[in-house]
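ok trying again, last paste got cut off:
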Amino acid sequence: MSTPTAPMREPAPATPGRSRTLPLRTTPPILLGRGARLVERNVLAYRQAWLVFVSGLVEPVFYLFAVGVGIGGLVGDVPGPDGQPVPYGVFVAPALLASSAMNGAVLESTFNVFGKLKWGKLYDAVLVTPMEPRDIAVGELTWALLRGGVYACGFLVVAWLSGLVVSPWAVLALPAAVLIGFGFGGIGLLVTTYLKSWQDFDLITMALLPLFLFSATFYPIDVYPPALQPIVLLSPLTHGVELVRSLMLGDLRLALLGHAAVFVVLGLVGLRIATRRFAALLLK
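nice, full thing came through this time. structure:
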């Protein structure tokens, strides 16, 4: 007597919608390659954490009203990039915009990437897919740019509503802020690959604070003693402040290309070395 066998289950019919979109999901996008999938993942993950973006925008706005408007009422006018006097609030607002782009990119490329790399082990799961370490670096840097860009856009709207935007060229401050985020985000990714524990982030905080305070943010670089001015120019944020300040005040000069080149170099170098570091850490 033969043993009855269980009937074979018929394969589930393919979902028409899924079968149509599957080639699109498995084909690397032209612009970012497979790194775009990591950006998409972050967008979906942050849908429930939108307060993180709000908190990053509020801080520079507080500084704008406390320093630019409050202390600006006591300071009066200061010399702008072209030497012409401008109200202190108009002088400080571009610097805070550049700072917000820096903070957004650095926080995203360090704290959040470190959590995914060391504790969440997210990238180990990512590499099971066709994605490669370069896709991880490109995707996370792009996400950092988006976060910095959101901060910059929100801050510029607040500054415009407060009457602190005096030139139509200020619209170019947005791509400049994204470029600043590219430079700082690339370096942030690179630094993160060398961090060992959360205590190491004290070093990042210690580095960001003097950059924020002493990069011609709140007063012109001429205020510093001549011996210290070359040191101030070593700060990448100084070049970001000069770039955004000149654009928001309508002072367009060829020298701005030099300030922009600083962030192109920083971003490309950081991205290239960070890609190698991701490969060394994740494929060992």
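cool. The CA atoms of residues 105 and 144 lie 5 Å apart. Residues 1-11 have pLDDT under 50 and may be disordered.
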